[in-house]
TrEMBL record:
<dbReference type="InterPro" id="IPR017927">
    <property type="entry name" value="FAD-bd_FR_type"/>
</dbReference>
<dbReference type="InterPro" id="IPR050415">
    <property type="entry name" value="MRET"/>
</dbReference>
<keyword id="KW-0001">2Fe-2S</keyword>
<feature type="domain" description="FAD-binding FR-type">
    <location>
        <begin position="10"/>
        <end position="111"/>
    </location>
</feature>
<dbReference type="InterPro" id="IPR001433">
    <property type="entry name" value="OxRdtase_FAD/NAD-bd"/>
</dbReference>
<keyword id="KW-0479">Metal-binding</keyword>
<dbReference type="InterPro" id="IPR017938">
    <property type="entry name" value="Riboflavin_synthase-like_b-brl"/>
</dbReference>
<dbReference type="InterPro" id="IPR039261">
    <property type="entry name" value="FNR_nucleotide-bd"/>
</dbReference>
<dbReference type="Pfam" id="PF00970">
    <property type="entry name" value="FAD_binding_6"/>
</dbReference>
<dbReference type="Pfam" id="PF00175">
    <property type="entry name" value="NAD_binding_1"/>
</dbReference>
<keyword id="KW-0411">Iron-sulfur</keyword>
<protein>
    <submittedName>
        <fullName>Oxidoreductase</fullName>
    </submittedName>
</protein>
<dbReference type="InterPro" id="IPR001709">
    <property type="entry name" value="Flavoprot_Pyr_Nucl_cyt_Rdtase"/>
</dbReference>
<dbReference type="InterPro" id="IPR008333">
    <property type="entry name" value="Cbr1-like_FAD-bd_dom"/>
</dbReference>
<keyword id="KW-0408">Iron</keyword>
């Protein structure tokens, strides 16, 4: 998930591309080797800077897609056709190529595997990225924390991490989908936007006091957060990350 980069005091590090995985026809996971990386928490993000030969540079911020793994950092980048940064990262950026990164950034929208309360993850589109880092961190820690994911996406072809999410039930993560434009063959409901019924069916009751993480486009996040509040969830337990057009 991309955001506009925010200047900070962290130092830039030179990373190199170690591996790639295509997630959808327009989204790619980049595995970066970052010497001296201090580690990160699931939910944090990093700034990425590209510099042209003439000295012009462009920065974007991307959520980390996987828990800390030594000096490796995984980002999943959605290609935007007229963007400055994402077409390079998802296209010509090749194994061994350098890129500058800065982070980790953010300490509020994070999940720690020592937290005991159930977790509700609500993702819209590429907002799944930091939430997937939390799911993977839970698995890596061998945690038994109850997790539920409600993932709203336009079409089945645009589901990130599709194979991994199909296996999520094996590790105790309950996953449900809302398709807004096109549904899989045999899907019992027509395309629609997320609503109260979806959160009632795919979420936790408010009396369970779950930690709620909502991530996606601004309108989606506001809608989901409003529904959670209407269902009686504690506002202090609802953490949100939102994004909009960034020229990515």
């Amino acid at each position: 998930m991309a955001r506009a980069a925010v200047p900070g005091r962290l130092s830039w590090r030179v990373a190199r591309l170690a591996a790639v995985r295509d997630e959808t026809p327009t989204a790619r996971t980049l595995v970066l080797d970052v010497p001296g990386w201090p580690g990160h928490l699931p939910g944090q993000h990093v700034d990425v800077k590209l510099t042209a030969e003439d000295g012009y540079s462009a920065q974007r911020s991307y959520s980390v897609a996987a828990p800390a793994d030594g000096e490796r950092v995984e980002l999943t980048v959605q290609r935007v056709g007229d963007g400055e940064v994402s077409p390079h990262l998802t296209g010509v950026f090749s194994i061994g190529d350098p890129v500058e990164v800065r982070g980790p950034i953010g300490g509020w929208f994070v999940w720690r595997d020592t937290a005991p309360e159930p977790v509700l993850l609500i993702a819209g589109g590429s907002g799944i990225v930091p939430l997937m880092a939390m799911i993977r961190a839970r698995r890596a820690a061998g945690a038994r924390t109850p997790f539920r994911l409600l993932y709203s996406v336009r079409t089945p072809a645009e589901v990130y991490y599709a194979g991994e999410l199909r296996q999520a039930a094996l590790t105790g993560v309950e996953v449900s989908f809302v398709y807004t434009r096109e549904t899989p063959e045999g899907w019992p409901r027509p395309p629609k936007r997320i609503g109260v019924a979806d959160l009632n069916a795919g979420g936790w009751p408010a009396e369970f006091a779950p930690a709620c993480f909502v991530c996606g486009p601004t309108g989606f996040v506001e809608t989901a957060a409003d529904i959670l509040l209407a269902l009686g969830h504690d506002a202090r337990r609802i953490k949100t990350e939102r994004f909009g057009p960034t020229g990515t």
